[in-house]
Amino acid sequence: MTNQNVIVSDPRSGFDSSVFSFSPAVPGPLPPPGRFIAVPAKKSFKNIESAAGDHRITALLDSMRASSPPRRSSETENLKSWIVHHPSALDMFEEIISASKGKQIIMFLDYDGTLSPIVDDPDKAFMTAEMREAVRDTAKYFPTAIVSGRCRAKVFNFVKLSELYYAGSHGMDIKAPAKGRKHRNGNNQTVLCQPAREFLPMIDEVYKSLVEKTKSIPGAKVENNKFCLSVHFRRVEEKRWTELAEQVKSVTKEYPKLRLTQGRKVLEIRPSIKWDKGKALEFLLESLGYANSNDVLPIYIGDDRTDEDAFKVLRDRGQGFGILVSKAPKETNASYSLQEPLEVMYFLNRLVEWKRSSLQRYQRK
Ligand SMILES: O=P(O)(O)OC[C@H]1O[C@H](O[C@H]2O[C@H](CO)[C@@H](O)[C@H](O)[C@H]2O)[C@H](O)[C@@H](O)[C@@H]1O
């Protein structure tokens, strides 16, 4: 028996995270005690799990609302104590540098909300020329990967840097830069990893159904991210969210091999395989020759729940640093924080400056 349509919350992915699973879902271990400060509690795991019938839609709606909760004055206080536990990566720069001694830094960067600001229209989430320059410089000194929920081609069109690794579709489509070729597919293109290939026809079918079902809801947008789909509701009036949630559920309930997760004002539909941004990070480390190595310092910067899988991998490996981009306190497996994409750019530039000057010092010797 499957737990089709049973809704469980995923303690791995942040305080307001819910995974709407259509197949048995196994929540990962909770983070070690004492690591996190208290953050506003959401619906408890039990409450959500025991929901049935229409309540499932209610739980989905609760989670949709939680994806952008209104600011409260108490949050300033919360932020102050949260920052003690997740200090700014800019303030901790020297510590990060000293941890990298004798190690190769590898940079992993999420796209939306990390390299580009969150905007209403997903097709207009451009990064600035300055940010592109910062990423280009970073890749000159450190192997650099973009890890995004978007399909690889689309995120490449935004970033436009061929020297990077790209892991699109939440890590389900990984490609190396031309000069780092490892594997080739039949078309002579470099593809490192596509663990959800068999789902392509299903994803296409679901995409068409979702477009059809949601077309009467103004502002709703279904984005085809090749191995997964996004249903955006940022521009949908809140009074129509119930209708949207029902329409999405009416499609996904027919596909027990897919699961429904949630990002920032977006419902994401993806294959129920054990693959996520954390697995992509591990795969890339292995491809780069650092599978069981101590000579590496991975740094992963991201803003979303899906990035928590990568933060957790780093924490479990006891290696490198996760950096959460957020202005608000969130339960996270990341060690450090940055407030917004601009600070991400400052951080990257500082890293590049440090590397340049240490190389110059070395050359002068
Ligand atoms: O892993 P990411 O690179 O962060 O991708 C996650 C989703 O990002 C995009 O949606 C988000 O950004 C949009 C543009 O700022 C915003 O309008 C939307 O509300 C956000 O959820 C992207 O469009 C999705 O497909 C990705 O899954």
From TrEMBL:
Pathway(s) it belongs to: Glycan biosynthesis; trehalose biosynthesis
EC number: 3.1.3.12
Pfam families to which the protein is assigned, alphabetical: Trehalose_PPase (PF02358)
Molecular function in Gene Ontology: trehalose-phosphatase activity
Keyword tRNA-binding attached: no
NCBIfam families per the UniProt record, alphabetical: HAD-SF-IIB, T6PP
Function (record text): Removes the phosphate from trehalose 6-phosphate to produce free trehalose. Trehalose accumulation in plant may improve abiotic stress tolerance.
Protein name: Trehalose 6-phosphate phosphatase
Record lineage: Eukaryota, Viridiplantae, Streptophyta, Embryophyta, Tracheophyta
